[in-house]
Amino acid sequence: MLLAIDVGNTNIVFAVFDGEQVRGNWRLHTHAARSGDEYAVFLHQVFGLAGLTFDDIDDVVISSVVPETQLHLQYFCEKHLRCDPLNITKDHVPMEIDMDRPEDVGADRLVNALAVKLFYPRYKDAGAIVVDFGTATTFDVIMPAGAYAGGAIAPGIDLSMNALHSAASKLPKIEVRKPAQAIGKSTVEAMRSGIYWGYAGVIEKIVSEIAEELGGGAKPFVLATGGLAELFKDTGVIDMVDQDLTLKGLLAIYQEMKR
Predict the structure, then answer these.
(1) In what order do the strands lie in the sheet with 86-87?
(2) Which residues contact 148 (CB under 8 A, 6 or more apart)?
(3) Which of 42, 57, 154, 190 is the most buried (most CB within 10 A)?
(4) Is there a single domain that holds both residue 13 and residue 48?
């Protein structure tokens, strides 16, 4: 079986694949100093609940945007799983990268773009945009010919809410959800309205600008992923939500390299 690990700035997602089937997936808050043995304790517990053991794992593939975690995950894999993980870089992603500095693009963004190419052929009609709701909200563009063309990066929703709470002492921390109406009748509802409709506007505007630059008249295929993707799927520009997009891309890269 394959253990796929997607390390983001906020969360780490672990998923076990038995062939194409997902046997289980789990999230853990990202902490750069977490030791390899701590990863082992967490995964031993969740594996047990899924009827899995470390002996079931044959290989590990990792995509990370937090370099500080690499040493600890390497140690975990070598000591507890007795394998050398495959750490994904841009060189492992078989697609053209149309960027001024391709080496600066996060591996997770390229893995997402590859997954769109492999699993969503609709990108060939007018291109595609992946909206990933993470610590940052990223917009990644796949051209109809299949090249990764760059995109946009905006502050993530949780990041913006925490900044609002930190900078204004009377504003509380709130949970993000769609408000019943735009005119908030309390401070909390006013904040929810500003966050939700403000980000809906960000999504719609950036997607609109990208679509105009792509040209061709047809609307590009827009796919959302990440923790808050479901909350914003009804903004009017998102065609589909796929929470497993990065994991699918990691599995595809692993399978290609093992051929």
Answers:
(1) 21-29, 11-18, 2-7, 59-64, 86-87
(2) 95, 96, 97, 98, 99, 105, 109, 110, 113, 140, 141, 142
(3) 57
(4) yes
- What does the pLDDT average to over 22-31? 93
Domain that holds residue 72: 2-87
Tell whether the model's pLDDT for residue 182 goes beyond 80.
yes
CATH number (domain holding residue 190): 3.30.420.40
Cα pseudo-dihedral 127, 133, 138, 141, rounded to 10: -10
Round the CA-based radius of gyration of the chain to a whole number and report it: 19
55 is catalytic: no
Answer yes or no: do 42 and 66 share one domain. Answer: yes
Provide the whole-model pTM: 0.87
Please state, as a whole number, how many other Cβ atoms lie within 10 Å of the Cβ of residue 252: 18
Token couple for 79: 């000591």
Tokens encoding 52? 């899995």
Token duo for residue 185: 């009748």
Options 6, 59, 108, 242, the catalytic residue:
108
Average confidence (pLDDT) over 51-56: 96
In a domain, 152, yes or no: yes
Enclosing H/E stretch for 198:
helix 187-214
List CB contacts of 31: < 8 A, sequence separation 6 or more.
Answer: none
